[in-house]
Amino acid sequence: MKDERIHTVHIQDLAKSYRRKHALQPLQLKLMKGVTGLLGPNGAGKTTFMSLLATLVKPSNGTAQIYGHDLIDGARDIRSLLGYMPQRVNVPGQLTGEELLLYAASMKGIKDAAARKQEAERVLNEVNLLERSGDRLKGYSGGMRQRIGIAQALIGQPRLLLFDEPTAGLDPSERIRFRNLVRGLGQERTVLLSTHIVSDLDSTCEYVVVFHKGRLHFQGTLQELADQAAGKVWETIVSPLQAEEWYAKRLVVSGSREGDGMRLRLIADEIPTAEAKSVEPTLEDGYVAVLKENML
């Protein structure tokens, strides 16, 4: 039987510390083909984890097998099969979009000039920037720079794709376009999508992992994450004054004005008021429930 590790990403006790700060606690995780969402608040360790998998930093402990290559000994081989979009996309403003992607194609080992140009045009079309390919990057808006960052990650048809907060700065239509693109990519590749926006996962990912303060708190399907809040989600209408008290004392997921009162959706182990009604949990409810002990 063929070793499945050549088709997956296996993480074993992977950890990263900076002096006395533990950015990532020892982690056990397996990423299969498809789209996995990496969810967590800012500072949860998501970017550290991405940087480790992208071989940009070395782990303090542990390792990973990425499509059969060791994270440390096989770093060069890993870089040849991955595409990475960092959280902050810094681009040389004097280059055009096409020039940047031609350079990226060269770095990916595409030697033929015609093939490099064809690949650059393909990814520019994927992110809806083909018509602006001749413009210098210094004239690109923030959203356009995000899209060129996505494009360079797609060069060379990588088997492992790492996107760190890719939808930041995208307008609604481009966010939808990106979600559709990622959904298609996940059919043949392993995609890890880092975000703190729960809605980015709902229509894109098959699996989700939740980080908080450098620790893994959950891994499973989207439905399994929502189920973490089963029987714990309530809706109730209270006065604005009471609402302020609930926000201070309870885990209010959302609130909206209704007449003279406030309709609150909250997480609680027991019914919070006699008038409260139990409701079906959403992905966001499950996320809050998983991190409940850390958010009180």
UniProtKB/TrEMBL annotation:
GO terms of molecular function: ATP binding; hydrolase activity
Record's keyword annotation contains Cytoplasm: no
UniProt keyword list: ATP-binding, Hydrolase, Nucleotide-binding, Transport
PROSITE patterns: ABC_TRANSPORTER_1 (PS00211), ABC_TRANSPORTER_2 (PS50893)
ATP-binding listed as a keyword: yes
Domain ABC transporter: 9-238
Stated name of the protein: ABC transporter ATP-binding protein YxlF
Organism: Paenibacillus plantiphilus
